Amino acid sequence: MNYLEEFYNAYDEEGRLLSRHGRVEYLTTMKYIEKYLKDLSDPSIIEVGAGTGRYSVTLAKRGLRVTAVELIEHNLKILRSKLDGTESITTMQGNALDLSHFPDDSFDLTMLLGPMYHLYTKEEKLKALSEAVRVTKSGGHILVAYCMNEPTVIQYVFWMSHLREVTELNMLTPEWHCISEPKEVFELVRTEDIAELDEEIPVKRIKLVATDGATNYNREFIDTMDDETFSKWLDYHFAICERQDLIGASHHTLDILQKN
Predict the structure, then answer these.
(1) For the chain, what percentages of helix, strand and coil (3-state, to nearest 5) are there?
(2) Most distant CA pair in the chain: distance in Å?
(3) In terms of pTM, does the model score above 0.90?
(4) Cα–Cα distance, 153 to 46 (Å, whole number)
(5) What digits encode the pLDDT tens for the residues 68-99?
(6) If residue 174 lies in a helix (H) or strand (E), which one and from where to where?
């Protein structure tokens, strides 16, 4: 068993997205998924790295045609347990680095909402992105999620007092970019890293969105909000989530691309 399997076998990913603070990321991502599906009469959708199916199952239960590919068997079992057999969904175990099971130009919407969290080299990242672009129809959209560098420096390194530890382990560059390996599970990037990747694939960026913005800095407060206050928090978040001066401080971002 590798580090990634160990992590997801023990981690409650479903619970995170169902928590009030996790719902901000989920609702923001769904807002943009719906935006790029609304003008398509019978879209074909693939989610690569579907996790426990929070997005894929939701879309399939709305009557949409979905293919869900997930690397971790534990996550795939949870995803399949949510299905009653009436959904138009194909589920399979697979790797974002190799989508050879699918022909070119197969899907209207391709989602990578998890794989880029766990790819540590530029070559791997470009391979996953290239595969996602390849299976997307011309003019179709690719939605790619990333974990961002600065929230980890601010929260983990400073607020949680791990500065000495990460310094002794040489986990930070002189420019304060976190250095990740598979044993750290998550790869952290900056907006310029994402832009550099986009330049090497045949896409046009539509927008880069902060999917949780300031939310995860205030998890305990967000989780105790009453419904009215939480609704206002969402209004505020949606109003600023495309502001490029704030993107890098978000824990998660969504890169929205269109295939040339």
Answers:
(1) 45, 20, 35
(2) 55
(3) yes
(4) 33
(5) 999 999 999 999 999 999 999 999 999 999 99
(6) none
